[in-house]
Amino acid sequence: MRTQIAIIGGGPAGLMLSHILHLEGIHSIVLEKHSRAHVLRRIRAGVLEAGSVALLRDVGLGKRMDEEGHPHDGAYIVWKGERKILIDTAKYTGKQMLAYGQTAITEDLYSARDAADGIVVDEAANVALHDLTTDAPFVTFDKNRDTEQIDCDYVIGCDGFHGVSRRCIPRSVLKTYNKSYPFGWLGVMSETRPLPDIVYANSERGFALASQRSERLSRYYIQCPLDHDVEEWPDDLFWQELKARFPGDIADAMETGPTIEKSIAPLRSFVAEPMRYGRLFLAGDAAHIVPPTGAKGLNLAFSDVYYLSRGLIRHYKQHDDTYLDSYSDTALRRVWGAARLSWYLTRLLHLFPDDNPFDQRTREDELDYVARSENAMATLAEQYVGLPYE
Length: 390
Ligand code: APR
Ligand code: PHB
Known about the structure:
Blueprint: E1 5-8, H1 12-23, E2 28-31, H2 36-41, E3 47-48, H3 50-58, H4 63-68, E4 70-72, E5 74-79, E6 83-88, H5 89-93, E7 97-99, H6 102-115, E8 119-121, E9 125-130, E10 138-143, E11 146-151, E12 154-157, E13 175-190, E14 199-201, E15 208-214, E16 217-224, H7 235-244, H8 248-253, E17 259-273, E18 276-277, E19 280-282, E20 288-289, H9 297-318, H10 322-349, H11 357-372, H12 374-384
Helix pairs in contact: 1-6, 1-9, 9-10, 11-12
């Protein structure tokens, strides 16, 4: 097989890249390790920055998102069981966010690739990358007991944190930054009417978040110890603990009911630099992970893909590699911005096991300050809505 761009990983980053390249007449093949059903089952965050919304519309994927997504002028933060602020992105940046789940976006991307007869090989096993520092890189993989080879111009690693692509970059070249957090998020999905707004809660019992997927689908999270198992959280206990972390009026407005999904995810910050090695480029979770506080993961994957597609299009159309050569530096500026914001919000809103009362008091003071200071609020709103693409 031969293609211009071999893309490893059929998550949002890989599919979006393949879709954009197709619109410009550039051929790609996507190799995905899991079955399509598995990829479409995964539940991830669901808040789109204004830049991601614009990108999806620009590449012809805005229809269902605009019909089903829920626009927000910002998100609320509550603390001390009574205080409340709106991170008013509409007022301070003129931009809105949109609640639209990653699961739905992945469905939309698969539909677009199918409609264009795009090649997405699923259940591709033992994917291996070869000759990345030559002009003739290639990828091998196993499918249905055969070993296949794809010759290409470039290989793009969109295979998430646990993928193979990043590991092909020698340790002497790759610098990694890692931070793990001493708690996880217990997330539930329930077919109940969500609150009208996204609300983050800091409380003495720990962090909680109320979010949504649609009119009748709510998404809630609570901070929990890393060694907890979902079995320890029957529905009744979950709803009780969730409500206890919000002010009374908000807790009273929450509709409860059976949960349809429950899982615990650890929180981690990770950045790998550079995002290029020879003819290999990394995009999305393959290069960086942010904790979910602020919902930046998918948005970062899309900004990487935007920068990278721009570089590849310029390469093929104008034989100019300026954007490809600056890709890693440009993408990393935005990555670090989001990595810092996600870390900041995580620290601001969660309780840490080795905290003493001073730590929680300074958190509350910082929230009081944001509530009082237009400048502090403008800074937060600008970053929450997403820094503009360069
Ligand atoms: N070979 C082929 N595919 C692989 C391999 C491999 N060795 N390893 C992993 N994959 C696939 C995974 O099965 C997955 O479908 O790569 C895909 C990576 O997708 P994501 O993990 O969704 O990452 P990405 O596309 O970068 O999207 C980032 O996902 O994790 C969230 O919060 C994150 O929302 C952000 C988004
Ligand atoms: C979600 O809806 O899953 C969500 C929303 C906001 C976040 C994180 C996750 O900050």
